Amino acid sequence: MGRWEPDARARLVAAALDLFSEQGYENTAVAQIAERAGLTKSTFFRHFRDKREVLFGGQDELAGLMTGAIAATPVEAGALAAVEAALVATAVTFGEERLSHGAQRLAVIAGNDELRERAALKMVGFALAMTGALKDRGVPELDAVVAAELGVLAFDRGYVRWLETGGDFREIARRSLGEVCAAARSLEGGE
Predict the structure, then answer these.
(1) Is the dihedral of CA 106, 10, 65, 162 positive or negative?
(2) Pairwise CA distance, residues 3 & 158, whole Å
(3) What are the CB-based long-range contacts (under 8 Å, 24+) for 158-163?
(4) Theoretical Cys-Cys bridge with 57: which of 25, 53, 99, 102, CB 3.0 to 4.6 Å?
(5) Which uninterrupted H or E stretch holds 153?
(6) HSE-CB for 98 with a 13 A CA cutoff
(7) CA-to-CA distance for 56 and 165, rounded, in angstroms?
(8) What pLDDT, in 10s, does the model give residues 116-143?
């Protein structure tokens, strides 16, 4: 492929994931990714700050979608309804490219301690963003924290389920949140 061809970002993602899978994340250089994609190193840096961002890019966009949806939820809705709206709002980012590389991305992350830590920090960032948005709605702090953490757990479980089924992420997110909340309620009877 020539350097002028479209879809440079998608080509870089595919090249990076292939190289990470073949030789390990830590053994892959940005120059190798660019070369595999048929692009230059400077093109890589126009799309990504570093090679980690190939795996974790879009976090700010997702957090923004979540907080925006929480803020837009009707005032009379409860905290969990606002969290559900937040999860559903992220569905616009769950397209074919994310689906086609999702399982490979998860495998690369699972195979590297640094990347697993980064993935955990990403989820903490989502929880903090949702907690802040809920508190801005007047939700008491502990309630906001619990609702946000349940939302993050549902988001994570929903993402894995979506990779397996490729279904509508909005429905998967709703179902995952319902399952997580049901599991939390069932803990009351066991004490």
Answers:
(1) negative
(2) 37
(3) 158/87, 159/102, 160/106, 162/94, 162/99, 162/102, 163/99, 163/102, 163/103, 163/106
(4) 53
(5) helix 141-165
(6) 16
(7) 22
(8) 999 999 999 999 999 999 999 999 999 9
- Model pTM? 0.87
With b for 16 or more beta-carbon neighbours within 10 A and e for fewer, the 7-42 pattern comes to ebbebbbbbbbbbbeeeebeebebebbbebbbbeee
Distance (Å, rounded) from C-alpha 109 to C-alpha 55?
Answer: 8
Residue with tokens 């909340």: 181
Residue type, 133: A
Tell me which DSSP letter residue 49 carries: S
What is the C-alpha to C-alpha distance for residues 149 and 92, in angstroms, rounded to an integer? 22
What are φ and ψ of residue 55, in 5° steps? -90, -30
Locate tokens 């923004």: which residue?
64
DSSP single-letter state for residue 100: H
* Per-residue b or e along 100-122, where b marks 16 or more CB atoms closer than 10 Å to that residue's CB: bbbebbeebbeebeebeeebeeb
In whole angstroms, give the CA distance from residue 117 to residue 110. 10
170-180, pLDDT tens digit by residue?
999 999 999 99
Distance CA 17, CA 101 (A): 8
Helix axes 169-186, 79-89, angle to 10 degrees: 150
